[in-house]
Design brief:
The complex is a heterodimer of chains A (about 500) and B (about 100). Chain A is an alpha+beta fold and about 500 residues long. Chain A has helices at about 10-15, 65-80, 185-205, 245-265, 310-315, 325-335, 340-345, 350-360, 365-380, 390-405, 410-420, 425-430, 440-455, 455-465, 470-480, 485-495; strands spanning about 15-25, 65, 80-85, 90-95, 105, 115-120, 125-140, 145, 160-165, 170-175, 215-225, 235-240, 270-275, 280-285, 295-300. Chain A is about 40% helix and about 20% strand. Chain A has three domains: about 10-315, no CATH class; about 320-430, no CATH class; about 440-495, Arc Repressor Mutant, subunit A. The relative contact order of chain A is 0.10. In chain A, α4 (about 245-265) links the parallel β12 and β13. The model of chain A has no long low-confidence stretch (mean pLDDT about 90). In chain A, strands 3-6-7-10-1-11-12-13-14 form a nine-stranded mixed β-sheet. A three-stranded antiparallel β-sheet of chain A has the order 5-4-15, with no helix packed on it. In chain A, strands 8-9 form a two-stranded antiparallel sheet. Chain B has about 100 residues and is mostly helical. Chain B has one domain. Helix content of chain B is about 40%, strand content about 10%. Chain B is built from four helices and three strands. Chain B has helices at about 5-15, 20-40, 40-45, 75-80; strands at about 65, 85, 90. A two-stranded antiparallel ribbon of chain B has the order 2-3. In chain B, a hairpin with a 2-residue loop joins β2 (about 85) and β3 (about 90). In chain B, α1 (about 5-15) packs across α2 (about 20-40). The mean pLDDT of chain B is about 90. Classes of the chains: A alpha+beta (about 500), B mainly alpha (about 100). The interface between A and B is large, with 56 and 35 residues.
Chain lengths: ~500, ~100
Amino acid sequence: MRTDPLVDYDEAVDRYDPVLGIEVHVELGTDTKMFDGAPNVFAADPNTAITPVSLGLPGTLPVVNGKAIEYAIKIGLALNCQIAEHCRFARKQYFYPDLTKNFQTSQYDEPIAFDGWIDVELEDGETVRVEIERAHMEEDAGKNTHLGGATGRIQGATRSLVDYNRAGVPLVEIVTRPIEGVGERAPEVAAAYVRTLRDIFRTLQVSEARMERGNVRADVNVSLRPSPESPLGTRTETKNVNSFRSIERSVRFEISRQAGILDAGGTVVQETRHFHEDTGETSSGRVKSDAEDYRYFPEPDLVPVAPSRAWVEELRAALPELPAARRRRLLGEWGYSDLEMRDVINAGALDLIESTVAAGASPQAARKWWMGELARTAKEHETELEQLAVTPAQIAELQGLVDGRKINDKIAKQVLGKVLEGKGDPAAIVEQEGLAVVSDDSVLTGAVDQAIAENPDVVEKIKGGKVQAIGALIGPIMKATRGQADAGRVREIIMERLGLS
Amino acid sequence: MPSIGRDDVARLADLARIQLTDEEIDRLPGEFDAIMDAVASVSEVATADVPATSHPIAMTNVFREDVVTETLTQEQALAGAPEAEDGRFAVPQILGEE
């Protein structure tokens, strides 16, 4: 289907300066919808989480969910925005069966939050500041299922089925100003920006922010220009990209594709595009023409929202510690190097290590387990750290056993393996399977005497001053006790028995 | 005074998905002009110190609690639907052949 010639990515960013613009929609995690008391639920039976308002039935009237306003203000504050003193909802008119009213209740020229910014940290630690133009409130639309086409897509479908459970779910749409000057890192910046927002939504507890459920959806605008001094080029908007990896791939693809068009002397068509996970390519959606005229006007069924400054300041004061500040604090508390911290963040181990430390382990020990043995295990099973069948509390308990000299490092790894197999908590496993270090002198002394009797030549060496030969005695003892002997104590007993201590 | 032409009427009809006959498209510009003139007379009394308003009563912050209310059953929801399938509203082809 593709006709545009692609340009190698490195060449494309060498010849052109990419500019991004990103619109992120987040579904708020309120109990009910934006304008009615229907439950805000995922995956209910179709058309059961609805009221007459959700269906836009004649005579119904919307009423604003105060909690949704609170969440929208919190998002605005976390993004360093101004909060409007007075704003209104507006009708955005369009004909499409995902809403029953032939308009979406949204905000137009009076968004609840505007003029903000957020610092986005890339994987190598570099920070990019993204300016936020606005964050406005609106309602989500229903879900269409297209039938009769070959691939479930709207193209070629003969009819569609609509479920309005999602219609009216509160959304906040966050719009950036053009993101300039990021050059070849544009794909990475786009993904990191959305990830930063996702983390903020979770910290604020305003949304579960699950990408795979469509709680967070990104529309990514990309344009190219010959140089940073040139005026902005024509942009395309890739709609509803719903994973970080897809965001990165779609931007990369659009840059290569648009460079191909520009190289050939063509012009980029301003249009919406769709991203295809399977091929990593985008395809043309609809052309933005002047037929797209939403005829916004103020929603006459709703009165304006005018958050008092006292309320806004109350919400600001109650904001939780945001992810970037938390990372800086933990870096200081834990005493990791910048590189160690970055590895921890990139491995998705920050929360796990924080919980492990909270459960009593030292930051160094917590990092050693999660970034070492557990990271290897996760990689081996091609899964994420947080999916492993072990809790931070269990890791802290395991480390406690090591610190208390109940088990040694080698046994600890065995115990961890058993925890991962679901055999219980570390202390219980050590107890049940008799894995505790043997430091009982009567047991150890017997083993030592036996080793001494069996290795007279080694004993002679030690007595002759070659103390390092003691390893040849300790080795068999460790073996005889399946690695459970306290090696330090064994050494002491040998020296005592040989009269050398 | 703004004047509404045939093209404007045709475009509005298209946006509103209303099919008009040629005779209607000929007649409506004059009617729209009359409406526009009537509405424009408001600006004669609205001086600069009168703010734009979208609601007749000066109220703000009418919120409801975030509490679930009674919902419709699927049967009730679909009762008025011309066509339904699998608990969903069935609608005709959305995209025509292009």
